[in-house]
Design a protein that fits this description.
Length: 266
């Protein structure tokens, strides 16, 4: 007795669902999510600092972009983890295709996994003790920005050759995503420390500066997610399991995103 193999006929419903998640649509949903989180955070700050309803803080802090273990924190952590997963997928695919810099992709995947963990555990907040040890003032009032800037510089040096070998479109997307993220995380954070030293932290001004910082970080990560999705679409020959790239101009990577020459260089 032979057992026949059933063949699936018709369109794949799962593929149809994934096909809707093009890079453009992912960017759209991320933009809306960030806008909603920012609006809720500003509203929370207005109620507490302007209307004087500090008694509601324990409830409203759930929406505060600058607080810990709340809705914005979980969203940020999840998006950083998404970056880690996409980077790991690209590393695996690049290895199978015999491409270069597999170790760099893996290292970035691990780095973003740590950043995701840090977003929840707030490990970098312990660096705030450096202020007491170093007696920093002004733009360095939040002393952790000093080792933070040194770490960014170190990563830049270690990954420079890798970055320069990326396809042009991907390189620029990654560059501007990084600029937005680092500007928020370090530059705006430094400005917030300067104002905190003179005005304190329990006021609307400091809260708004912190909101700008967090929104820039979220926007930088969002841009990086889109850059990775588009790169993966080209790397996989326009077969993207993350967004199931459909055969249309919105989903298919452009020639500049396709890393053929990047892989051939190996």
């Amino acid at each position: 007795m032979s057992i026949g193999i059933l063949k699936r006929s018709g369109p794949d419903p799962v593929a149809g669902v994934w096909a809707a998640w093009t890079p453009r649509r992912v960017a759209w949903w991320q933009s809306w999510a960030i806008a909603v989180l920012a609006t809720l955070s500003v509203a929370e700050q207005y109620v507490i600092h302007i209307l004087g309803r500090a008694d509601l803080e324990d409830f409203l802090i759930t929406f505060d972009l600058d607080a810990e273990s709340n809705l914005p924190t979980w969203y940020s952590s999840i998006m950083l983890l998404v970056c880690s997963v996409l980077l790991g997928m690209i590393a695996s695919r690049t290895r199978r295709l015999g491409g270069r810099f597999v170790g760099h992709w893996r290292a970035l995947s691990g780095l973003f996994a740590l950043l995701s963990l840090d977003e929840i555990a707030r490990l970098h907040e312990h660096l705030g003790r450096l202020h007491e040890a170093w007696h920093t003032r002004g733009l360095f009032y939040f002393a952790w920005v000093i080792p933070g800037a040194a770490f960014v510089a170190l990563v830049g040096v270690l990954f420079l050759r890798f970055f320069l070998h990326l396809p042009a479109a991907t390189r620029w997307r990654v560059f501007w995503s990084g600029v937005v993220f680092v500007t928020g995380a370090l530059v705006v954070e430094a400005l917030g420390g300067w104002r905190a030293e003179t005005m304190g932290m329990n006021n609307m001004t400091h809260s708004l500066i912190a909101t700008v910082e967090e929104v820039m970080e979220l926007a930088g990560v969002a841009g990086f997610v889109v850059a990775l999705l588009r790169y993966w679409g080209g790397l996989g020959g326009n077969r993207n399991p993350a967004v199931a790239v459909a055969r249309n101009d919105e989903a298919v990577a452009s020639d500049d995103d396709t890393p053929d020459s990047y892989l051939a260089a190996s």
